[in-house]
Predict the 3D structure of the following.
Amino acid sequence: MKWRTLFLTASVAAVTLVVSWGSQPVFAENIDPDDDDFQYAYGENAGWLNAEPGGDGGPGMEVEDTRLTGYIWAENVGWVSLSCENTSSCASVNYGVTNDGNGNLSGYAWAENVGWISFSCENTGNCGTSDYGVTIDPTTGVFSGKAWTENIGWMSFDFTDSTTFGVSTSWRVDS
């Protein structure tokens, strides 16, 4: 009798958890760890790019050791997907922004309204003509550099004393 009651109680608890978790998407993101609005990049034509659009735990960008996942919201562009896993298109269109483990980003993001967004000149082999790329400082987690899209131009992740925007992450290089 005790086993039956225990099993029934555990089953009800498990179903409750699955139903409550299943009703809302679960997102992870590690942007703006100090909650000081250090989540914005900027493009003259794209407008503000928000790497933490849903606030803590929203559908924002996640930095991992080998890649970026999730989305960025751009006010004049819409959603920017950082991985084909977001759009379930990996079998037909395999794209994504990769992290070499030291904070050097490469690869492509996709935005329905503007197309491909390149995170490194090495993607196209044009570094001699236009040297650009986005990096993450491996000790501070601060982003720098620029991404490029043919349709709307540059997207700056640079934080300097003269800018009022920047993106930071709690991701660090593993020692």
Summary: Residues 27-167 form one domain. The radius of gyration is 19 Å. Residues 2-22 form the longest helix (21 residues).
